[in-house]
Every structure is written in C-alpha cells, then in structure tokens.
Request: fold
Amino acid sequence: MKIKKSEIKRKNVIGVFDSGLGGLSVLKNFIKFLPNYNYLYLGDNARVPYGEKSSETIYEYSRQAINFLFSSGCNLVIIACNTASAQALRKLQQEYLPKHYPDGRILGVIRPLAEEVIKRNKKNIGIIGTKSTINSLSYIKEIQSLNKEIKVEQVSTPLLVPLIEEGWIKKPETKMILKKYLRPLKIKKISMLILACTHYPFLLKDIRRICGKNIEVPDPGEVVAKSLKKYLSNHPELKLTKVKNSKKDFCFTDNSILFKNLAEKFLKKEIKDFKLINLNEF
Amino acid sequence: MKIKKSEIKRKNVIGVFDSGLGGLSVLKNFIKFLPNYNYLYLGDNARVPYGEKSSETIYEYSRQAINFLFSSGCNLVIIACNTASAQALRKLQQEYLPKHYPDGRILGVIRPLAEEVIKRNKKNIGIIGTKSTINSLSYIKEIQSLNKEIKVEQVSTPLLVPLIEEGWIKKPETKMILKKYLRPLKIKKISMLILACTHYPFLLKDIRRICGKNIEVPDPGEVVAKSLKKYLSNHPELKLTKVKNSKKDFCFTDNSILFKNLAEKFLKKEIKDFKLINLNEF
Reply:
C-alpha cells in the first residue's frame, strides 16, 4: 500500500464484511432499516467457510478484509460473520485498528444479540452456530458479561449451512436434522434461541415451529440492524451522514459460477455488478 | 524463492496434494499398496473446500501447492483432490510444469478411474462428486476419450462431505440423503458408480448397499493406488526408488483444533507431527 493509511479519506460508507455470502442476509436488513446510507459489502467467498479454521487464520483473513475496507474509505465496518466476530473482532478493535485506522470503528454481531437477551429479560438461552463460534464461547462470555446469572446452552450445527446452500430448506431431511440439533436445547428448557450464523434465518420459520411458543427466536439480522441504527445516532463523530441515492457496492474474492445465484437468494435482489479482489495483497 | 527451481534436487519423495484432509484416504491406500516409498502430504485445510470455487481460484491454489511440493524435492505429485484434478491438472501439466519443473510429473485421480471403467467393460456409468467436479464434465470427457460409446450420468452431492466430516456416517438422515442422491442414477440403470470425491469412501458400505448387486462401486483410493503402482514400474526415469524405512511427512495450511481428529480418522493412523505452511508465498 503506497498511501499512508491515516491519510485515506473516509467516504461516508458503511463496510459489511462476511466470510462469504451469509452476510448478505445482514446487509438486507441494513438496507431495510437504514436505507439512506452507502454500503460496501465484502465477501471472502474464495476462502469460505471460516467456521472450522484456526483462530490465527480467521484473524489473518479478517485483518486483510478490514484493511481492504478501511483503505477503500469505509468509516465503519460491521463484521457480519459470527465466526470472525467471535475469533477476530476484539483483537482487531484493540490492536489493529488503533494503530492503522484510529478514526475507523468496527462492530460485530455478538454484542447486539447479547443485548437483546437482556432487553427481552431472558434467563435461559440457547445458541446454535458453527463449530468455531461455539468453541470460542464468545456468546456465553458476552451474555454473562452483561448478567452473570444467565444460563447459556450451546449446540454446534455444522450441517445447516450446507443444507441451506444446497437449497434444501423445505426438505424433510432438513427438518429431521433441525429437530435432532434442537432437541438438547428444548430439554434444557431454554426460553430464547440465538441463531449465531448468518445463514440460519433462512430456516427461521421451521426453527420457530420446532421451538414452539415458549422459545423466542429473534431474526438476528433485524436485531443487528436496529442496534446499528441506535449506534449511528449515538456516534455523530463517525461522520456517517444520510444520502438521498444510497450506493451499494459489492466485492468478492472469487468469481464462482455458483455463487451469484446464491448471493441473490440471500440479498433477495439482483447483484448487477461486483469487483473481484485479492485479499492476500492487504 | 531464492534457489533456481530447476536446480532443486529431487529427494525420492512422492507428493500427495489435497484441498484438505480427504486425500489422506488416498494416501492410506498408497501406504497399503506401495509401502516402501517416501511421502509428503500437503493439505490446504486453511482454504478447503475447493468444491464450489471458480476454476481460476482452484488453479491458483493448486499451482501454489504444486510449487511447494516440487520445491520441497518431490519427484512426482499426485493430486488426490478430484476438484483440483478436474479444474487444474491439465493446465499444470501442460503449462506450469514444463516451464518450472521439467523433470517433475503430476498425476490426477480422474484418469485411473476412467481406465477402471474400460477395464471392467462397463457401458453405463454414474458419477457423484462436488458441484465443481460435476460441472467441469471432466469425468465424462476422460471416460469418453477412451470410449465414445460409454454413457455417463452425473449427480452433484454436496451434502455428503459435511455429513462425513460431522461424523454422521451411520445416521438415518445420511442414509435418506444418500438414497435421494442415488435415485436418479439407479433409474438410469447405471452398472458402475464412480465416487468422485476423496471423502465418499467413508460411505462405501451404505452406497454399495443402496446401489445393490447390479452396480459395481470400486473404492477410488484403491484404484488410484494400483494405477500408481503400475505407473511407477513403467517410469524408472522418475528415479523413485524403494526405501526400507519409508518416511511420511505432513504439511497443512491451517492448524485448526478440529482438524487433527478428522485427519486421523481419514488416515486411520495418528499424525504425530506436521509442518504449518503458508501457500501464498509459493
């Protein structure tokens, strides 16, 4: 990078980073609840999924992504990926950002969901996510940092992402697998379930039906979008201002013939144009 | 790289490259059928799976891997990964290798399986594999290059890898999904099924049971190992000689806490030591 990082101009853009396409379900909610902002979405679909990689690798890939987004002029970056939020966010916020982009801010998706638990006054929480997110214990730590008394039960559910990406949302096999995954949480009598993966909202209807009326299952994208709305109104120093004609730009690390259809399924909108980038250079 | 590539000494080692851990099921067969050789296994588990990436990305990742293995002194490299064999092998053999390692050789896994079809005199073949392998049409091209009359039916079966990696081999859901995937091939009355993914042999028993006695399902690792044995005896110029105490070295691109167990399941042996490498430098 030839330009000194601290000299890069902020361009009134919110960056959204995800390990792949799942983050588009979060971006979709941003566009719904915060339509008058510019967005730059970065999906690292060449190296997806992050869910079973080491924390060192997840940190390095996330650092490259963050470096790309801030050097592209983002004022604020949301890490939409639960795995990267769990494994890389804190170190990026505490070490990388102050050194390289002191005027930038990074937010994850775990904190808003932990705050939702408190808001809904729930005491017995279930979490489903990738192996890496579950093993990181990040949700437990975040929720219990807000209230030590809250009990949290976790189950890793690694088959859900491939089932969703395969388009098997309505298949009986998917329902069977969901029931099997959710059984231990129902036995523990949880009163709220957190979907700790950007893909899972695609199964929201079935998950809610299996959970029954005693378990609340918020849409995580909606929770994160509403939390971002509040954050923006509390942080005018970020200089993110509303625009009339909002721009949405997309960057991906791989141009697979398979990904465009899937991306549009996530966003519920056509992606007309995107830039292909190589994150190893960042 | 400081050393001139053509000056690197061949060290009497067979390289085995895979996008992750599945190739260990191939290596296991090499060790069984060709025990007196040295092996260097490279698994790109930081960037696994390759199955849904673009052919450009698969080529670039495979090129780095091949560069690493030959610059480490391998005489011959087997690409155990079907996706990389389908998407990158030919270009590596025809362009990259002659320029950079003219004394090296690369083999894939598709040719030996295509030859097995001829050997068994089968005329109606089924293939199951990842989306990328299936979309590449590589098996169809390879088989029909040997005999144009052979009919080939393909089905992509992307849920099998996650089911196997999750350890759900004996679960009823896996059997249901397998039956669903194999149904269109059974309807087409195939007489031989090729498992075009290194993971699938873990389901060999169930696949054979579902296929019934009219469909032959060879173990692909065994086919590839026997083909390699023949290749070595026909190619003394490779200077691969038998050794008394065979060395097996392992390199991976990610040190995830989750991978070691899985790796040992594939190899059916403990992996005591391995080197962590960064392929982006190659």
